Amino acid sequence: MLRNTNTSRQVARTTKRCKVQSRHLAMRGIIANYRNQSGMILVLTMIFLVVALVIAALVLSVGSMGLQQSVNQQEAHQARLAAESGMGYVCSLLQRISISEDDVISDIKAGLNAGAIDVNAYTHGESLYVYPMAIESGDAGMFSAQLRESGGNYLLTVTGSSGNTLRAVSVELAPQDAINSAIFDHGFLLGGKLQLTDNATFKGQNNPDEAQVFTNYVGSDETFNLSGNASLAGDLHAANRDGYASVSNNVSIAGQTDYTLAGELWDHIHFGAPFIALPRPNTSIFEPMATATFSGKTAGPLTFTNIRIPANTNPKFTGQINLEGVIYVESPNKIEFGGNVDITGIIVTEDPGPGQTTDNSIKFTGSAFFHDISELPDTPAHATLRSMPGTAILAPGFEVAFAGNFGTTAGALAAEKFTLSGNSGGTVRGPVVSYSNDPFTMSGDTILTIDRSSYPTVPPGFISGITVLKPIITTYREIRE
Asked: Exposed end of the chain (fewer CB within 10 Å): N or C?
């Protein structure tokens, strides 16, 4: 029994020792396994860290490239805007400088460097250059310009810069009269508000645009007052951005009659158009053609050819009166045609200036018939006038009143003020220009039709005689690098 007990104890101790060894082996395995896993985690961590660093570097590189591209695009955009701004600025300056046929480049250089403009310009070879000029103290870029002759015209190239980026634009300019011909694209050019009532009508002979209206009136915000059955074929334009139109009853504009708040009629009334200073004509160019002096006879039938009516004559013509060539009226004068009058030529007045219509007027209380100046005899006395078609009445400073029909005029009508009443009206082959701030008023059954198909864009008498360089818009180009 004792021996067996010892044996059991030995077996127990052996078993215990085996268990301890097993535990040690297991711990060693766990520790070795842990060590293996830690090594793998460290390797993976390093790999992930390297990948993250690579991605971060790529992101930083792409971000830097994107930022640089954004900066480049911004500079390119700013440079192009600087070039376009410079082009507009230089073109506006050139239209203020009178040039001669002898040396245009020298004239432009002198004009730009003059005190009124004071732009630093110089010539090199056959070209003129404008030194770089900053826009908004340089924050919006800079521009420089070059002007040179090109096939009878002049090529203007303006280069804009921003940072290290350059962009350039060009346009051709042509010598033209200083008067802006675009203002005569309108059928009616007014200094006052437009006031139509009853059946007063504006028409376009060939298309509605011929009868569009422009007014630079700013005396009050009511710019258009239209009522009754007034009808206007073309759109209405006003320089006053705060202006408004009073429209009622059966008024029609550009074929639209719905003047409710959402009505399409309002799409044809425009405010805030670029201001147009109505050019006063130069009637002195016609004065030398009036070689005879009015005789004082007024009872027709009578024919007057190339006559001057002296100041304060105030004649009242009756019966049949025929006017040929140039009829030049000195100021002050009040002239009235009570019977029928046939006009083959042009009536022009000395310009007393604005606000003088009380003492200066030409009134047609009967019927007036206008004939084209090509119907004048082909003689030396009419040679100059026959070469100047396009104007029928040029009466700055005078009120011109029609109480009867005047058929078809042989050109534009221009006066300080117009008064049309009764059944007066007719066709005007050119624009109607009214300088006064007083309303341009029409009532009754008056109809004015504008026909722009026959005569030049700028009517004779509106030529200033001053030549400047003007851009030819269709030649505008962006210069690609």
From this structure: N
Tally Cβ neighbours within 10 Å of residue 407: 16
Residue 379 φ/ψ, nearest 5 degrees: -130, 165
Distance CA 260, CA 250 (A): 12
pLDDT digits (tens, 9 = 90+) for 283-337: 989 999 999 999 899 998 999 999 999 999 999 999 999 999 999 999 999 999 9
* Residue 349 to residues 159, 309, 396, 427, Cα–Cα distance (Å): 48, 9, 7, 22
Neighbours of 264 (CB within 10 A): 14
The yes-or-no verdict on residue 345 having pLDDT over 80 is: yes
How far apart, in Å, are the Cα atoms of 301 and each of 307, 326, 338, 465? 16, 19, 12, 39
Q: What is the residue whose two structure tokens read 């732009």?
A: 119
Residue 420 structure tokens:
């049309």
Residue 332 DSSP class: S
Count the Cβ atoms, other than its own, within 10 Å of residue 428.
Answer: 26
CA 388 to chain centre: 28
**Per-residue confidence (pLDDT) for residue 65, from 0 to 100:** 59
Bridge partners for 232 per DSSP: 202, 253
- Rounded Cα gap, residues 53 and 50, in angstroms: 5
User: Rounded to whole angstroms, how far apart are CA atoms 232 and 201?
Assistant: 6
> Are the CB atoms for 172 and 150 separated by under 8 Å?
yes
Evaluate whether 209 touches 232 at the Cβ level (below 8 Å): no
Position 29, amino acid = G
Q: Copy the structure tokens of residue 457.
A: 């864009």
Q: Rounded distance, CA 282 to CA 134, Å?
A: 40
If we measure between CA atoms, which residue out of 400, 339, 394, 395 comes closest to residue 367? 339
Of residues 412 and 178, more confidently modeled? 412
Residue-wise pLDDT for 217-239, tens only, equals: 998 999 999 999 999 999 999 99
User: What pTM did the predictor assign?
Assistant: 0.69
Give the single-character DSSP code of 294: -
In the chain, count of helices (H) and strands (E)? 3, 32
Q: Sign of the C-alpha dihedral, residues 170, 173, 178, 184?
A: negative
> Residue 301, preceding bond cis, omega within 30 degrees?
yes
* Beta-strand pair 432-434/236-238: unpaired
Contact 200, 443 (CB under 8 A): yes
- C-alpha distances (whole Å) from 477 to each of 78, 80, 146 are 17, 12, 15
Distance CA 372, CA 172 (A): 36
Distance of CA 264 to the CA centre of its chain: 24
Q: How far is CA 373 from the centre of its chain?
A: 33
Strand 477-479, strand 440-442: pairing: unpaired
